[in-house]
């Protein structure tokens, strides 16, 4: 059974930093690309960025230069380091991965820029 568990939510001041984590189980983590999404109230879920199994990253234009995705294959965990946070970054953040037949999502972690 695939499980993705996000953590790291809370309150942070504008301009501050926060790191989210997503612990994965039930997959061969080093072989899986991982993605971060976010959904703000009243908005559709949007892709924040992703990291391939080889560590190549890509980001949405709205977060490029401020957010960094990394992975620790020994811990089966992917991270989202968020710097220079803005109020518009406030959302529920989800991690996601997919296999040949299914896409999997975590329960999301929420935080707010004050």
Portion in strands? over 45%
SSE ordering: EEEEEEEEEEE
Query: What distance separates the N and C termini?
Result: 37 Å
Proportion of residues in helical segments: under 10%
Count of DSSP-assigned helices: 0
Unreliable stretches (pLDDT < 50, length at least 5) are none
- The counted number of beta strands is 11
Biggest sheet, open or closed, and with what strands and sense?
A: 7 strands, mixed
How would the global form be characterised?
Answer: globular
Structural class: mainly beta
Mean pLDDT: 93
Structural Rg = 13 Å
Topology:
Elements: E1 3-7, E2 11-12, E3 18-25, E4 34-39, E5 46-51, E6 57-59, E7 67-72, E8 77-82, E9 91-98, E10 103-105, E11 109-113
Parallel strand pairs: 2-11
Antiparallel strand pairs: 1-3, 3-8, 4-5, 4-9, 5-6, 7-8, 9-10, 9-11
Concise structural overview:
This protein has 114 residues and is an all-beta fold. It has strands at 3-7, 11-12, 18-25, 34-39, 46-51, 57-59, 67-72, 77-82, 91-98, 103-105, 109-113. It is 0% helix and 51% strand.
Explain what this protein looks like in three dimensions.
- The structure is a single chain.
- With 114 residues, the protein is mainly beta.
- The protein is 0% helix and 51% strand.
- The protein has no helices and eleven strands.
- Strands 2, 4, 5, 6, 9, 10 and 11 form a seven-stranded mixed sheet that branches.
- A hairpin with a 4-residue loop joins β9 and β10.
- The model has no long low-confidence stretch (mean pLDDT 93).
